[in-house]
Amino acid sequence: MSVGLEHYLVLSSILFCIGIYGALAKRNAVVILMCVEIMLNAVNIALVTFSRFLVEDTVLLDGHVFVIFVLVVAAAEATVGLAIIMAIYRSRRSVDPDKIDMMKG
Amino acid sequence: MALEGTAAVSAFWILAVVSVVTALAVVMLKDIFRAALFLVLCFFTVAGIYATLSADFLAVVQVLVYVGAIGILLIFAIMVTKETQHGSLFNRQHVFAMFFAVLLLIAMIGSVTQTDWDRLRDVANPSTEATHTEALESGEGLTDEIGARLFDEDGFILPVEIAGVMLLAAVLGGIVIMRERDKE
Question: How many Cβ pairs closer than 8 A exist between chain A and B?
Fold first, then answer.
């Protein structure tokens, strides 16, 4: 019994779809951010998988470098996203995205 | 072209099952605080999955950045916004969202299993990349190779500097957005 490229890619797909379901169906902005983090993790798993399994007994390091950049962007996204959520909570007393419509003309 | 041996294979299956279950718990649980704790557990299992893919440096960075920084930040946000009494509910379109997610999952799994990845292996040219069989076999790890790849002249030095500027902009943006408005 062995585990190969397809196993990891299917795991990555499942995590990505769980994340996209949560991001679409939740009513709390913090939980939506958490689901976006799950989706980013799923993409990272796919990148590391390809860098490990594409060529035999070799690790293509470009995939690892891409994962590091995704990590940087995820950290920046969490910072700014949570700051926006807290600023909206301070003025509206709610983090429900359905109720936040002040940019509607 | 695959992980062999019972240790690696059983490690993959345990980590895969735990990560999927914890991700489902993040989405399904009503208690936001527990969902955040399950998210931290999910990040840990993803770090373990990196370790099974011999990405040792990324596993450590995953624990440091996701568990250490983003997990704590999310728990702080949950405690400050006091939305725990409402809980994490589903909105009106959750049936449609479930339908879309399942459809996407079927499409992705179908394309992953139908694709002939061996053809891609022929296209990938390892001669332009550094090969790291020795580092993998001797157990030295890939950290210094990643560092060389990031900071070399012909590597990724320009994106690294741009990422630094972007992080600075994100930190400044977070401070500006969160700051109390001056009462005038």
Answer: 261
Per the CB < 8 A criterion, the answer to whether B104 and A17 are in contact is yes
Tens of pLDDT, residue by residue over B152-169, are 888 889 999 999 999 999
A103 touches chain B (CB under 8 A): no
User: How far apart are alpha carbons A34 and B74 in whole angstroms?
Assistant: 8
Which tokens is A48 given? 């590391």
Residue numbers in A near B55 (CB within 8 A)? 48, 51-52, 59, 64, 67
Identify the DSSP state of A98: T
- CB of A62 within 8 Å of a chain B CB? The answer is yes
Q: Are B27 and A16 in contact (CB under 8 A)?
A: no
Averaged pLDDT in 10-residue chunks for chain A of 105 residues:
87 96 90 93 94 80 91 93 88 80 74
Residue with tokens 């527990």: B34
CB B35 within 8 A of CB A34: yes
- B87 vs B147: which has the higher pLDDT: B147
Chain A hits for B61, Cβ within 8 Å: 68, 71
Sign (positive/negative) of CA torsion B166, B74, A82, A103? positive
Mark yes or no for CB contact A4/B3 under 8 Å.
yes
β-sheet bridge partners, residue A3? B3
Query: What is the ipTM, given to two decimal places?
Result: 0.91
pLDDT tens digits for range B119-160: 777 776 655 555 555 556 666 678 888 888 888 888 889 999
By CB atoms closer than 10 A (0-12, 13-18, 19+), residue B75 is middle
Q: How many CB atoms lie within 10 A of CB B135?
A: 17
The interaxial angle of helices A61-92 and B71-81, nearest 10 deg, is 10
